[in-house]
Design goal:
The protein is of the alpha+beta class and 298 residues long. It is built from eight helices and 17 strands. Helix 2 packs parallel to helix 5, helix 6 runs parallel beside helix 8 and helix 7 runs antiparallel to helix 8. The relative contact order is 0.15.
Length: 298
């Protein structure tokens, strides 16, 4: 099947869900989070926009970039997000995979009817190299979760109930980073995460995609030793924003690591730019703030 035909079929499936809703044929029930939890063997978190997120951090991996041991929350967080649209649930997400895991996981997702929407790297200097696979699907929430877990079982991704959450510990770099960016974040697992939504929500197949489903500007920071921090994340950019953001990041010694798309038929068309930098907290954050100034955010 050609990529064009696959895209048309996926968009048609999403459109049919909307038609059912408009004709009053769709169920008014909300998202079945209990079925999702049962399928995965772990609970998720309800986010803004009625988005339910389940995380699968790759705590089994030891990835190093430029001598920095990457914490799972910095760049190794596989996840699934669900949102109910009438009688159908939308599933989207991003999987962190080793090269040897890509083909079996992709084959399983494809055979189950889930659409692969992107496959790329985030960090050029990662050892071992890891890849990021985006996917999407529409249907019954519990069934979608079951199909995704079947694919995840073909990787070494830790599944089942996670261990007890560690008590949140403040990060020494939190204040200077937040002050330079002008936005507050949350610290978990030694990683400060800051999210800034776009001014206009993206749509896919005619359905609004809330920022919590992965369209926000996401910035992560961790200790890199010797009074420095490491940062990576992704900016979601319209076509006219790409060039100025690339220029500003490079002017501030922030390396551009990847540029790609996550969806096949989104509007506006968004490009996702990933970066990497190590340095003084205020200096690094100031470079990201300069880039944010060229992005239409709320």
């Amino acid at each position: 099947m050609s990529r064009r035909l696959s895209t048309v079929l996926l968009v048609a499936e999403f459109a049919l869900a909307l038609i059912a809703l408009s004709l009053g044929q769709a169920s008014a029930d909300g998202l079945n989070t209990s079925a999702i939890d049962a399928a995965f063997g772990r609970s998720g978190q309800m986010l803004a926009g009625d988005v339910y997120k389940v995380g699968f951090p790759r705590k089994d991996l030891h990835v190093v970039v430029e001598g920095v041991d990457i914490k799972p929350g910095l760049a190794l967080g596989s996840y699934a997000v669900f949102k109910q649209y009438g009688g159908s649930a939308m599933l989207m997400g991003d999987l962190v995979l080793l090269a040897s895991e890509v083909e079996p996981v992709m084959k399983s997702l494809g055979q189950s009817g889930l659409q692969i929407t992107a496959l790329h790297n985030h960090l050029l200097g990662a050892s071992p190299m890891v890849f990021y696979m985006h996917y999407a699907g529409m249907g019954d929430a519990g069934k979608l979760a079951t199909l995704l877990k079947q694919a995840l079982q073909l990787s070494a991704t830790p599944l089942g109930p996670p261990g007890p959450a560690a008590s949140p510990q403040p990060a020494w770099f939190e204040t200077p980073v937040e002050q330079a960016l002008g936005h507050q974040g949350k610290v978990a697992g030694g990683v400060l995460s800051i999210s800034v939504p776009r001014a206009v929500d993206e749509t896919f197949g005619g359905m609004t995609i809330p920022a919590a489903m992965g369209t926000a500007q996401t910035m992560n920071f961790q200790d890199a030793g010797n009074g420095k921090i490491a940062t990576t994340g992704d900016f979601s950019l319209t076509a006219d924003e790409v060039a100025p953001v690339v220029r500003v990041l490079r002017d501030h010694n922030v390396d551009v690591e990847a540029l790609h798309m996550h969806m096949l038929d989104d509007n506006p068309r968004l490009f996702y730019l990933h970066w990497w930098a190590v340095g003084d907290p205020a200096t690094v954050a100031s470079g990201l703030k300069a880039a944010l100034d060229h992005i239409r955010t709320k």
